[in-house]
Design brief:
The protein is built from 13 helices and 19 strands. α5 runs parallel beside α9, α5 crosses α12 and α9 runs parallel beside α11. The two termini are about 55 Å apart. α12 links the parallel β17 and β18. The chain has a four-stranded parallel sheet. Strands 10-9-11-12 form a four-stranded parallel sheet, with helices on both faces. About 40% of the residues are buried. It is α/β, with parallel strands linked by helices.
Length: about 450
């Protein structure tokens, strides 16, 4: 074969765990492969024999891989390599000019220029171990064949449960998981959902955990404040929600600020004012003020983006006109169907409504629209709110959505979402009473 012009090209592919099985190429002649494997010390081994190559690989078998393909000693402009983003790939490499039968041809949408020589470097994706390398010897010409892996294979889901003996201790466990230290904490009642859910955006911008109280958790919360080293305590809700005596106890640990209105709608607006003063955004999230599921599902996005949640009462956004005008809010993200949040589009110049046929589907639609390409989700009860109230800020911090699940059994829409999106990790919040299932 005529010696080919050498050029530079970079491409990254995500390989499945069965990568090297394909490198060893059941469909390809193994005696055409000649591989050099770099050790951790960087000292190269001699090319392994064909027999050895066909038998085993020096790459860990529990990793996915990135691939960088570079034409040798190139001076030409980089040609494009187009690989569909929704596939995992196997790769087969063999010397050009081999008299062996040609391997599988590239699939549609995969384009590798034919007149280049290539080096290949393979490295584990997001590995904690030192990355091994596979270098194709420079004195060979190589052809590369890429084919999609069977992506219908079921992904094994890893799960972890975060729970305490009750809702208050669960909130503490969430704080411990998400924060080694924090300058600020947010304290809200655990006896109702409205204040804590509206506080998700404030927790996000303040980088603060949400701790729950019922007037009898002062010692528990004080201990967590000390662990975090927090010097600012923001109480959301009035004195009926978090008592004056409790606020005075926290004042011994740091500066206490109360954010409260006459009711849940006004408290949400007070929180929104505080968030907007810090972010200066022109977008708000609108959720049902009479029920918790939709606000719970969107809390992670509110925390991540610093977008305040204002509460709707049917077709009305009580007391919100002044806030919208003062802060020049032009866009509203409405979460929930018309039964949950009525015709409030008129409050904004531009709106986007995210909704499903029920609370489970709405949470899934939030995940699909606002957390695309995620491989990790947070599972909370769709039947009761206590264990989930403090989840929003942690989920926002990890850029992962909140999905609702029945207390017992499974939900068909949830199972479909987990499977179709190949979710790899599920964080379950609350004990077996909140969510019975494991994975």
């Amino acid at each position: 074969m005529k010696k080919r012009t050498k050029s530079l090209i970079l491409a990254s592919l995500i390989l499945s765990q069965s990568f090297y099985a394909s490198v060893l190429a059941a469909d390809q002649p193994t005696d055409s492969l000649n591989t050099v494997v770099a050790t951790d010390s960087g000292n190269k081994k001699e090319p392994v024999s064909d027999k050895e190559t066909s038998k085993d690989s020096d790459l860990p078998k529990d990793f996915g891989y990135n691939i960088v393909v570079t034409p040798i000693e190139s001076g030409k402009k980089e040609p494009e390599i187009n690989v569909p983003k929704d596939f995992d790939y196997n790769i087969v490499v063999r010397p050009v000019g081999s008299d062996k039968e040609e391997g599988k041809q590239p699939v549609d949408g995969v384009s590798l220029p034919e007149d280049f020589d290539y080096n290949i470097v393979v490295t584990p994706v997001e590995s904690d171990k030192k990355e091994p390398e596979i270098n194709v010897p420079k004195d060979f010409d190589y052809e590369i064949f890429v084919k999609p892996v069977d992506t219908n294979k079921e992904v094994k889901i890893q799960s972890k449960r975060i729970a305490g003996a009750n809702r208050y201790e669960t909130a503490i466990e969430i704080s411990k998981k998400g924060f080694k230290t924090a300058d600020t904490v947010i304290v809200a009642t655990g006896e109702n959902y409205a204040d804590a859910l509206a506080a998700a955006s404030l927790a996000g911008v303040q980088k603060a955990p949400i701790l729950l109280t019922n007037q009898g958790q002062t010692d528990l919360i004080s201990k967590e404040i000390k662990r975090l080293g927090a010097k600012n305590i923001i109480i959301v809700g009035g004195e009926k929600a978090v008592s004056k005596a409790e606020a005075e106890a926290y004042a011994k640990l740091g500066k206490v600020e109360r954010v409260a209105g006459a009711n849940r709608y006004q408290t949400a607006l007070k929180i929104a004012e505080k968030v907007l003063a810090k972010t200066n955004r022109n977008v708000v999230i609108v959720a049902d003020g009479q029920n918790y599921p939709d606000a719970l599902a969107v809390g992670a996005y509110a925390a991540k983006e610093g977008l305040p949640i204002i509460l709707a009462d049917g077709d009305d956004l009580p007391y919100a006109k002044d806030l919208i005008a003062k802060n020049k809010i032009s866009r509203g993200i409405i979460v929930g169907g018309k039964v949950a949040v009525g015709d409030v589009e008129g409050y904004f110049k531009q709106t986007k409504r995210i909704a499903g046929a029920n609370r489970y589907q709405t949470a899934i639609e939030v995940a699909k629209n606002l957390f695309k390409d995620t491989k990790e989700v947070n599972l909370v009860s769709g039947e009761n709110y206590p264990d989930a109230l403090a989840v929003g800020v942690l989920a926002g911090k990890t850029n992962t959505p909140v999905i609702l699940n029945p207390a017992k059994g499974t939900n068909e829409d949830v199972e479909k979402y987990l499977k179709e999106n190949k979710i790899e990790k599920v964080n379950i919040f609350g004990g077996k009473v909140a969510i019975e299932r494991d994975f």
